[in-house]
Amino acid sequence: MTKVIPKMICGVLFVFILLFLCSCSARYQENKKIYQYAQKYAQSRAAEAIWEKYNIEADTHGYEVQGEQMGFAFYADSEVVVCMSYEGKRFCALIDLYDKDVLWDNYQQEQYQQILLEYLLELYHLPQPSGSDVTFSIAGGKSGKAPFGTDYDAHNLVNFRFDGQTVEDFLSRLDSLEYEVAYLDLEQSLNGITLSEENWPKTENFSVALRIRQYISGFDFSIDEKFDFAMVTPHFSGVQYLKQWLSAYGRYSQSEAFQRQWEFYDFYHIKRGELTWISTTDMDMDKSISFSQCDSHWIQEYSNASFVYRPISDCFMVEEKHLNIWLYICTDLANAYDNDIFIASRDKNTGKVQILNHILSEKELALLSQEDAFDMYEKYSNNIFSIRPGLEYAVVERIEQIPK
């Protein structure tokens, strides 16, 4: 009996492996057929469909077969996103290789985004923003993915043509809507803006998200978008540019009351030379931050035969334990020194000193790759630091010792 059990186990494993290999073979053949069809028909099929819908002769610039990655296998489906352009305007079209009647595209997304944005601005009496992005999805609609490494956008796909429909008619077709709005100059406060049930479609599971930011300087809105500085909470490497930040979310469900989430921040700044302290707490930061002169012995324990560290700023310490403060160091400070600049901290009780961050100069920042996500993150978080209460901080210069 004991010899039979291992044989049974081996038999079951053999059958399982055989079925798995057969499944892989069938999936491979199906994927191969889909990719062959896509190569032969996708771009011409998309061009024909766009011609029939809009009466324009659009150019095609590649495609992406849609599908799902499951484990080690990619399961391709018959839907293909085709990159297209017409008179300098880029857009995407989603077609089905097995169904000629399927066409979802975003050729007219600028019109849709404009009427949705105007609805929001009128609703809350807001002026035209410095930058905006509106993303939506049609109830029961399609979503697609553009080819990797291209700047084509496969969001906001629709299966109908815009012919002057009202915003109410368009809203009734949606199941999700997201606003990203940015201002450089806004007189009114964002604090009073909330999402009300009566202003949005009472469609089951319809959701609306609203994020509005007001900047104190011309921080690049596209960079802010790229790193999602405003998705959940203000990212620390964007706070030096912000004056106000608002995030609101609402979801309608017939089985529940209109669900709301709301978060708002005012940003308070104090500047001293090339250093700026930022907080989201409405209190007198001048009384919460103490300053003192740093002497040459402040960071002596880190000096050695190779390097000497010298404070180049006053020492400062956050006294209030429950106060969140960021320090922003202007790049001009690093540019003014030939040696490397760092932020250092010292525990006043133990005297322990730590070198925390290297502040890159403009020349060093220019060497970072514009394509590498880590380098881009380093570039825009280079000179912003979260300050812990109870520690003493200073900006220090590292001077290389020349052997005698």
Describe this structure in words.
The protein is an alpha+beta fold and 404 residues long. The chain has 3 domains: 79 residues; 158 residues, no CATH class; 127 residues, no CATH class. 25% of the residues lie in helices and 37% in strands. It contains 8 helices and 19 strands. The strands form 4 sheets. Strands 12, 13, 14, 16, 17 and 19 form a 6-stranded antiparallel beta sheet that branches. A hairpin with a 2-residue loop joins strand 2 and strand 3. The radius of gyration is 29 Å and the shape is globular.
Task: Describe the structure concisely for a colleague.
With 404 residues, the protein is an alpha+beta fold.
Number of beta-strand segments: 19
**In this structure, how is the largest beta sheet organized?**
6 strands, antiparallel
What is the average of the pLDDT values?
Answer: 80
**How do the SSEs run, as a string of H and E?**
HEEEEHEHEEHEEEEHEEEEHEEHHEE
Distance between the termini: 85 Å
DSSP summary: helix tally: 8
What's the layout of helices and strands?
Blueprint: H1 4-54, E1 59-70, E2 73-86, E3 89-96, E4 99-105, H2 109-124, E5 131-138, H3 167-171, E6 174-183, E7 207-215, H4 221-226, E8 242-253, E9 256-266, E10 268-272, E11 275-279, H5 285-288, E12 289-292, E13 307-311, E14 315-318, E15 325-329, H6 331-335, E16 340-347, E17 353-359, H7 362-366, H8 373-380, E18 384-387, E19 391-400
